[in-house]
Amino acid sequence: MSFSWFISVDDHLIEPARLWQERLPEKWRRTGPRIVREDKSEFWVYEDRQIVTTGLNAVAGKKREEFSPEPITYEEMRQGCYDPAARVADMNQGHVLSSMLFPSLPRYCGQIFHEAKDKELALLCVRAWNDFILEEFAQAYPGRFIPMMIIPLWDPVAAAAEIERTAALGAKSIAFSENPTKLGLPSIHTDFWDPVLQACNDTGSTISMHVGSSSNMIRTSEDMPTLAFMAYSAAANQAGTLLDWLFSGNFVKYPNLKIALSEGSIGWIPYFLERAEQVVDKQRFWASRFDISMNATHERGEQKGKATFDLDTDIRRLFRDHVYGTFIEDQAGIRLLDIIGEDNVMLECDYPHSDSTWPDTVQMAGKWLGHLPQDVQDKITVGNASRVYNFTPADPATIPES
């Protein structure tokens, strides 16, 4: 093992009960997100919804025998799940140099506010979450947190304004949906998202798409066994996201765009890059003239219009220049690193979720990465994340011993 600290590009915040109650204007606090306690239970209330925190999202410090999907209260979870100072202490314990936090109550890209009825309040809630991350994490602990923001998905102009506002305050990334059509929004192939993509292009904000951010995890059937679903869904969802973006033309239109496939793992990437090249090679003659809506019944597809993808595009170069995979545990992916690219993968520990490797990430990852050259280990553990998110991590020498 040749490294002792790492950057985790996918961790999670269980929002403290005080977040919106302290940060919303006073007139909105009675209707904004708030915690209600009844008997021994505890849940968020927002508009007409009651939302619990599942125990699998707050297992930090627990033995695997104690994992459970049943609802959990703040008292039952580790303080580092929701408290900034306690989180930093846990990062020190696990040698997490820097961390990027995804939301919990808002879901992975702020879907709950997109679904809200009162969009004026929803926008205030988005800004409150962002300001909390910027002020109580990133600014309070310089170099320890990569500030990732959520956006008002329902209004791309307001979203662009929020990207620009927060980027000026130090934000480095935005959370976005792996498939916005499943949220009732236009696809990335329309001009609906142009203000958002332009703002990311101009500010250098990386687009981070967490598996599940479409609120639609792919499954074979409604009664697919839960464990089978958990093993299958991440790669199934994110493979579609990868191909959608590669063939979208957005990387040509916005050459500074970068996307990260958060918690999607990496072992599946080589096959889909190879398959994309095969499809272009075999179908290029008709595909150079028009596009078509394919269907599973082999009935005549409807022509969608002119071809828009440049069939001479170097797909692997497009991937190398714009797309970044992330992994918690993926030994198969590491064995395929020469195909994926050592510059295109980043490590994560998923604190405090049940897939997390905290606090043993360094020891575990050392077994998978220890055979690699030192410069490659440095890229995967720190360097790539620093570059992709244009972020300067803390100096490990300044971090107190835990």
Automatic annotation (TrEMBL):
Gene Ontology terms describing biological process: secondary metabolic process
GO MF annotation, one: hydrolase activity
UniProt entry tagged with the keyword Hydrolase: yes
Organism field: Nocardia vermiculata
Domain Amidohydrolase-related: 76-391
GO cellular component: cytoplasm
Region forming the signal peptide: none
InterPro entries: ACMSD (IPR032465), Amidohydro-rel (IPR006680), Metal_Hydrolase (IPR032466)
Keywords: Hydrolase, Lyase
Keyword Hydrolase: yes
SUPFAM superfamilies, per database record: Metallo-dependent hydrolases
Record's protein name: Amidohydrolase
Domain of life, per lineage: Bacteria
